[in-house]
Amino acid sequence: MKFQPDNNGYYGQFGGAFIPELLYPNVKELEDNYIKIIESEEFQEEYKDLLKHYVGRPSPLYLAKRLSEKYGATIYLKREDLNHTGAHKVNNTIGQILIAKHLGKTKILAETGAGQHGVATATVCALMGLECVVFMGETDIQRQAPNVARMKMLGAKVVPATSGSKTLKDATNEAIRYWIQYPDTYYLIGSVVGPHPYPDMVARLQAVISEEMKVQLKEQTGKENPDTIIACVGGGSNAAGAFYHYLEDKEVELIAVEAAGLGVSSGESAATSQLGEVGVIHGSKTILMQDEYGQIVEPYSISAGLDYPGVGPLHAYLHETKRATFMNATDKEALDAAYELTKIEGIIPALESAHALAVLPKMDLQKDQVIVVNLSGRGDKDLETYIKHLSQ
Ligand SMILES: *Cc1c(COP(=O)(O)O)cnc(C)c1O
């Protein structure tokens, strides 16, 4: 098994670049240059410096003693929630904004669902003094007012997507239409999705998570490898980063957790690996939730960051080859896990990250089993949801 994509961006049968002809030059320019740029000394110096002094990396690897006691295992939390802007997404936007600058781009385009990627993009555009346009579904603009305000304060132009269900999928379609119209714009994608080379580029930029984990585990346990890594999967970028340097180490168990919404078979779910079939979405071949006519089925999760009808091609491949185990958690299980972590460790996790925590009670754990849960983000943005459900 090979976990790096081939020259055409395929992981096994998944990946590739299914794009309109007009975008071919842009994607080709990125494809020809991204590895050269990422591996250059100049990029590495600037990227590492910003991650350290601007984002606050390395993020701590925290031994959660009371959580460990409760579940009878040795559980560490990789604290991506402590990053500037509150999640792992900034690792990727810092990297891509530097790549955009190397390519001479001055205008940045992004789409966002809950607004987390939009905020991380608007942040790095402010940092670099670049123009920023963010497409966001009209429904999401109403649901995620605080993030819309943050983006505006950061100087981004937020454009409502008014087609279809007015959510992420529609924002993506309109962003792509804009990109065709203004091809000198740099399209900054927020997860390991989209046409090649985006999935591989974003995975490389998030790989800093597992790079740090190796050093921190060695320091704290004497061994670089944990037994198990657990991460939630929307598009799959925080999981890709947490798994990246362990993909070839078969003895490290990788667990990807999807959002089951009201239950996998309820019709209100986002558990793509359980419900999806092979198809093309947002420029790559992967598994996605679709009906018998190939129309995308609207996903549902209480967590806006996991509410996506596909997964990145790397995850489709990890699922198909069984290198990773795919589990899922319902809204209710995620809420319970979030309340529990808050009560016993004093950490309010993002609803997305709470899905990763929610599989702990479903696992058969050993006392000396070293587990790392990737805590992808903090829960400030979810407080309204948490408080609403607490009082029920
Ligand atoms: C966006 C987001 C996710 C889901 O995106 P991935 O690409 O699957 O990582 C998970 N957690 C948080 C906190 C997010 O903001």
Question: Quick check: average pLDDT?
Answer: 96
Shape, principal axes of CA atoms: globular
* Rg, Cα atoms, Å: 19 Å
Stretches where pLDDT falls below 50 for ≥5 residues? none
Amino-to-carboxy terminus distance: 48 Å
What is the SS-derived class? Answer: alpha/beta
**Helix share of residues?**
40-55%
What can you tell me about this protein's structure?
The structure is a single chain. With 392 residues, this protein is of the alpha/beta class. The chain has two domains: 18-50 and 88-202, Rossmann fold (3-Layer(aba) Sandwich); 56-87 and 207-390, Rossmann fold (3-Layer(aba) Sandwich). It is 42% helix and 18% strand. It has 16 helices and 14 strands. It has helices at 24-39, 41-55, 65-71, 89-102, 116-128, 138-143, 145-153, 168-181, 198-206, 208-221, 237-243, 272-275, 313-320, 331-345, 351-357, 383-390, and strands at 10-11, 14-15, 61-63, 74-79, 107-112, 131-137, 157-161, 186-187, 228-232, 253-261, 277-281, 284-288, 324-330, 370-375. It has a six-stranded mixed beta sheet, with helices on both faces. Helix 11 links the parallel strand 9 and strand 10 (253-261). Helix 4 (89-102) crosses helix 9, helix 9 crosses helix 11 and helix 14 crosses helix 15 (351-357). The longest helix is centred in the N-terminal third of the chain and has 16 residues, at 24-39. It starts with 9 loop residues before the first strand and ends with a helix. 55% of the residues are buried. Bound molecules: pyridoxal-5'-phosphate. Pyridoxal-5'-phosphate binds at residues 87, 89, 116, 191, 232-238, 305-306, 350, 352-353, 376-377.
